[in-house]
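Worked example 3 (structure in, sequence out).
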């Protein structure tokens, strides 16, 4: 015997949905709150709570005899990180590498992004976007080890530059800067390209009609309008370089950066509180950089 749906059971549910929709329709703030609840919960629970846990664990110590973590709060780790010459040297080295990578990537990304946004035809633009995205499909480790083989003694660079009396820089800070500049370059090109693409073409035509040279037009029209995108690109390259430790292990030789010290203290040294204290250094530097950038107003239009 077949059963037929009872319309009296579906009616209350439909009426409740309509009443709830009408209730939300007159309360835009409540709709916004419900819409943002899930992502804000994720942000607070995963990001902010994790940073708070990092700060708290930096105030713990490790018993030198048993290796157990002592959860009594102390500033010893923070004092060691601030006063020890080793951490100052590594911090300055990390800042230098991050700044060098950022400058190189911006210098390479600006002409590439401008050509993609304002010069290339639509078909060529699509091909260039694919070309920029293609390296992101490869594994980070594959790209780092590829540069290791390029920079090694007797590698491809030695083979190409040898006839000119020039040799590969080998492993060291130069190799780290070259490798990371290559790895992070797409992350700088894409936001700058998006910013260049938003610059109205009519402004460039107007500058040309008024007799402004191309260099003057780019300096006074394009760059000021694309500055927020350039800042976004620098944030990517600078922050990613500050936290990286794998590239240094692969092509850095005996050099260390802050990420290496964190990795060493978490693994071999088994000193999680000290590792947390060291990890606070790049976080503080990035917060200071973001505060400085915000004061310039470059992020207002992002």
């Amino acid at each position: 015997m077949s059963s037929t749906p009872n319309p009296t059971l579906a009616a209350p549910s439909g009426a409740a949905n309509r009443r709830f929709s009408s209730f939300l329709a007159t309360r835009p703030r409540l709709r916004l709150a419900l819409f943002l609840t899930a992502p804000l919960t994720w942000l607070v629970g995963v990001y902010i709570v994790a940073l708070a846990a990092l700060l708290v664990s930096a105030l713990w110590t490790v018993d030198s005899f048993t290796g157990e973590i002592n959860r009594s709060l102390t500033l010893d780790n923070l004092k060691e990180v601030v006063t020890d010459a080793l951490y100052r040297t590594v911090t300055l080295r990390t800042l230098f590498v991050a700044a060098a990578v950022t400058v190189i990537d911006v210098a390479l990304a600006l002409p590439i992004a401008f050509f993609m946004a304002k010069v290339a035809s639509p078909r060529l633009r699509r091909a260039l976007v694919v070309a920029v995205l293609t390296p992101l499909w490869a594994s980070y480790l594959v790209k780092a080890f590829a540069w290791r083989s390029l920079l090694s003694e007797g590698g491809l660079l030695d083979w190409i530059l040898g006839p000119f009396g020039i040799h590969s820089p080998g492993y060291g800070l130069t190799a780290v800067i070259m490798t990371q500049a290559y790895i992070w370059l797409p992350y700088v090109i894409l936001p700058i390209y998006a910013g260049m693409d938003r610059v109205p073409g009519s402004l460039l035509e107007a500058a040309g009609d008024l007799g402004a040279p191309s260099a003057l037009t780019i300096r006074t029209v394009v760059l000021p309008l694309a500055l927020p995108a350039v800042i976004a690109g620098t944030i990517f390259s600078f922050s990613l370089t500050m936290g990286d430790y794998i590239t240094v292990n692969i092509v850095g030789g005996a050099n260390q950066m802050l990420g290496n010290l964190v990795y060493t203290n978490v693994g071999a040294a088994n000193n999680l509180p000290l590792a947390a204290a060291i990890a606070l250094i790049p976080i503080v530097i990035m917060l200071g950089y973001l505060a400085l950038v915000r004061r310039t107003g470059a992020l207002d239009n992002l």
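Notes: The longest helix spans residues 85-119. The domain at 76-296 is CATH 1.10.3720.10 (MetI-like fold).
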